[in-house]
Amino acid sequence: MIDTGFTGFLMLPLVSAFPLALTLFGTTTYTLADGSQSPKLLAHGTVDLDGEQTQGLIVLEANASSGPLLGMEFLKRSNKALLVGKNGVYLFDDDEVVQDEEKASKSTGKVESEEQDDQS
Predict the structure, then answer these.
(1) What is the pTM of this model?
(2) Facing residues of 40 across strands?
(3) pLDDT tier at 44 (50, 70, 90 boundaries)?
(4) Mind listing the pLDDT tens digit for each residue in 50-108?
(5) Was domain 1-78 assigned CATH 2.40.70.10?
(6) DSSP letter for each residue of 74-87
(7) Percentage of residues in the chain with pLDDT exceeding 90?
């Protein structure tokens, strides 16, 4: 599951992480939506998505009932873009999205936002 509110790479329950023999890296503290602090263990790891491997820090979650969560850092590191629409949720390669945006702006004559910022 992808959690857009999670800024990290991957959150994994401890019970799922132990069999993987991940290398512990350290600790961190996350601020939750309600403002409370939550200390977590960190480990180095790799996510394999359709044959594409991406490395990052994995947050280990003590709550065994939570499932794995991919966060925004995973999307950045793996060069993925998330599109949420009325017909579903889609994961794209970032390069495809940029190319489509460039094509759309050329065909519609749309001025890019950076150009608009330069004019102000």
Answers:
(1) 0.72
(2) 28
(3) very high
(4) 899 999 999 999 887 888 999 999 999 999 988 888 998 888 888 776 665 555 555 54
(5) yes
(6) HHHHTTEEEEEETT
(7) 47
Identify whether the C-beta of residue 3 lies closer than 8 Å to the C-beta of residue 12. Answer: no
What's the CA gap between 26 and 9, in Å, rounded? 15
For residues 89-103, one letter each, b for 16 or more C-beta atoms within 10 angstroms of the residue's C-beta and e for the rest, the string is: eeeeeeeeeeeeeee
Instruction: Determine the residue type at 114.
Output: E
Half-sphere exposure of 86 (CA within 13 A, CB side): 0
Token pair recorded at residue 27: 């600790």
Which DSSP helix (H) or strand (E) runs through 28?
strand 23-31
DSSP secondary structure of 35-80: S-EEEEEEEEEEEEETTEEEEEEEEEES-TT---EE-HHHHHHTTE
Q: Which residue has the tokens 């759309």?
A: 104
Domain ranges of the chain: 1-78, 81-120
Token pair, residue 47, equals 């996510």
DSSP 115: H
